[in-house]
Design a protein that fits this description.
With 247 residues, this protein is an alpha/beta fold. The chain has 7 helices and 10 strands. Helix 1 packs across helix 2. The longest helix is centred in the first third of the chain and has 21 residues. It is globular, with a radius of gyration of 17 Å. Bound molecules: fructose -6-phosphate. Keywords: Hydrolase. This is Glucosamine-6-phosphate deaminase.
């Protein structure tokens, strides 16, 4: 399904409301809500609204367990550019989530330990009954998580090499492309696909060409987001600008 909103603020509030619904339903069932989270500029409005719902509307995250999509590798958690820092600053520092329930790929692993760690990440998600809801942004390469062109539809959590365009887009955060790590640990396309519900968000004209490919293009590993066309549980949430190339 594709839903287009007039602007990203309205869209972000809707996505936050959907997340809150899942959290509250699970709470009523005395179960944990297992959320897959994304970083980057796209979900910031959603996190702002979730913080507001926590502070002003009594939304509690005590029953929430989170798994982030990805982290640069190598990356120290306390570095300004780490996704740990991003999540703390934009969400976790402002809500009542138990820090033990937060999972983010570990950018400090020794090379030899990465593969086993990645399998464990998958197992942890599975042991909790899988992801109830995964939110996604989309990169201009068509990546979801850091599943760059060439990623397989059944790929799991793993170490990947970042596409040149992805590193160029991250250059500003790192004070130059040369400082952007060449690798990352990411959930796989297969990991994402197992979520019971997936919401991919995109805002602005900058995303319009890749959104057209993702939604209307041929399904291919060259644009990993096209795999989402194969799922009935995906909603593309767009602002008018990101939707402007759709036919
Ligand atoms: C982030 C992630 C990436 C971003 C994508 C878009 O955890 O997995 O796929 O969602 O690169 O980034 P922004 O939102 O900064 O345009």
């Amino acid at each position: 399904a594709v839903t287009v909103y007039p602007d990203q603020h309205v869209a972000s509030v809707k996505v936050a409301q959907r997340i809150a619904e899942v959290i509250r339903r699970k709470q009523e069932e005395h179960q944990k809500a297992v959320l897959g989270l994304a970083t980057g500029v796209t979900p910031i409005g959603v996190y702002n609204e979730l913080v507001r719902l926590h502070k002003e509307d009594g939304l509690s995250f005590r029953n929430v367990i989170t798994f982030n999509l990805d982290e640069y590798y190598p990356m120290k958690p306390d570095a300004a550019q780490s996704y740990v820092t991003f999540m703390n600053e934009n969400l976790f520092n402002h809500i009542d989530i138990d820090p033990q329930n937060v999972h983010i790929p570990d950018g400090t692993l020794a090379a030899d330990d990465v593969a086993e760690w990645c399998l464990e990440y998958e197992k942890q998600i599975e042991a909790l009954g899988g992801l109830d809801l995964q939110i996604l942004g989309i990169g201009r390469t068509g990546h979801i998580g850091f599943n760059e062109p060439g990623s397989a539809p059944n790929s799991g959590t793993r170490l990947v090499t970042l596409d040149d365009l992805t590193r160029a887009d991250a250059a500003r955060d790192f004070g130059g492309k040369a400082n952007v790590p060449t690798k990352a640990i990411t959930m796989g396309v297969g990991t994402i696909f197992k979520a019971r519900e997936i919401i991919l968000m995109a805002w602005s004209k900058k995303k319009a060409p890749i959104i057209k490919k993702a939604i209307e293009g041929e399904i291919s590993g060259e644009v990993p987001a096209t795999y989402l066309q194969l799922s009935d549980n995906v909603e593309f949430v767009l602002d008018q600008d990101a939707a402007s190339d759709l036919t």
